[in-house]
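Wait, mind explaining this?

_____
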Amino acid sequence: MSGFNDRFLRACRREPVDVTPVWLMRQAGRYQPEYRRLREKHPMLELCTNPELAAEVTLLPLRRFELDAAILFSDLTIPFLAMGISFALKENVGPVVAQPLRTEQDINTLRVMEPEHDLPFVAESIRILRRELNVPLIGFAGAPFTLAAYLVEGGASRDYSRVRAMIYCEPRLWMRLMEILAENITRYLRMQIEAGAQAVQLFDSWVGAVNPAVYRRYILPVMQGIITALRTFGAPIIYFGTGTASLLEAMQETGADVIGVDWRVLLDEAWLRLGYRCAIQGNLDPAVLLSSADTVRAEVQDVLRRAGGRPGHIFNLGHGVLPETPIENVQVLIDTVHAR
């Protein structure tokens, strides 16, 4: 593609780039007036499952900002549609699962998807976007622990005590759930790559709820299996979680090309702990964007300073853009990153 900007992909491979690439989790979202207007007309699930609408929402931030990657507009729960799970996406609440999975019988009802048949709108959205974009397109999925957390708890939770209890009380049942989810996630991401996604991100939003020993015994082998299976397709794999400062070394053992870190750990310390053996993504506190332009510049420059100019840094927030973020501050962030 003429004029294709591959900074992001080169950074994933830890190759030199002219300036640090930047994209933002939830870069399409409620902080944008264009997005809010669409949401007034269309519920979230419609935006995710209509290929033309999903592509349009994905493109909104790219039309306004000079970002170095696009991420497919979708939701972590979309695979549930293909797995026989009844759920709703409730405003300001998140996913609510009608019948949480608590027993072996519950788990055995889960289907293994055929994504090309069950979720064809995802592949079609990707194909539309590849015709439009001059930057890489990132596909994504929820990681097994995070999807399991929603399924077992029934939705978001303060401490994810039910899912943690399943690990300790019924480890065989837990591993069965993880195996089913891993197979579905692998198939789902493979379909996205084959449709044209040039990188994929595994979101493990709630895995910070467990300690490193539990992670290594009950989660790491499953993550290694997913990443090994996807590696043959050649797309860089990003693995991101929140509250994972204690898990960084174990997360690197998954074999992911890029480890995403949240704002609770300093970027230079995180990368040092990772031994500079992988690329790193992050990690400005999203709340910084609620402050003044001068503060945004200073905090962005601090993250860049901590990265030290090493090949392999992808600038991002430590989680998603907050809905109340002034749109002007997003522009300040991007301009500051690209000025280096």
User: Anything to note?
Assistant: Strands lie at 70-71, 87-90, 94-97, 137-142, 199-204, 237-241, 258-260, 279-281, 313-314. The mean pLDDT is 96. The first helix runs from residue 7 to 12.
